[in-house]
Structure formats: structure tokens, C-alpha cells
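May I ask for an example protein's residues together with how it folds?

___
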Amino acid sequence: MTTDDLGALTEETRRALAEDPRLGQLDVSISLRGRRALLTGHVVTRDRQELVAAVVAEHLPGYEIDNATTTLENLPEPPLTAEEDLGASR
């Protein structure tokens, strides 16, 4: 498979993620190497994370899917702003 073929396949798969009515997912990157697809980026929930992998698997049959996406529900809480910190100490 040529570099152009891989680029077209990657773009088709990205489009599938964006257009799938269950997802509308745009914050996921796809890298193809050999017969492996690496997914990175952020999704909202664990269910959405699994669905992203399923949609990619539908569009890339025969590829091993390595889903390295993270869920927003598992991200650490952002640090308090100075204003929030002051309000807590009152």
C-alpha cells in the first residue's frame, strides 16, 4: 500500500468517525502503520471510547486497533483559579 493509499484510507476513516450519527467525533487522530491503527485523542465517556474503536474496526477490517484515546471523565480536575481558591478560604 502506498503512502497516498494510507492517507486516503486514514481520511476516509476520520470522515466515518465525524459523520457517524452515534459519534460525530472529531477529536480523534488515526495513524496507520502496516496493519495497525493507532487511535489517539479525547472522547467524552468510556462508552464513546469503545464506539470509536468499533467504528474504526468497521472501516478497517483486518487491522489491529490500538485505542489510546483518553476519556474526559478520567482526566484530572483542573487546578483552582486564584478567584476560586480565595472563595474557598472565606
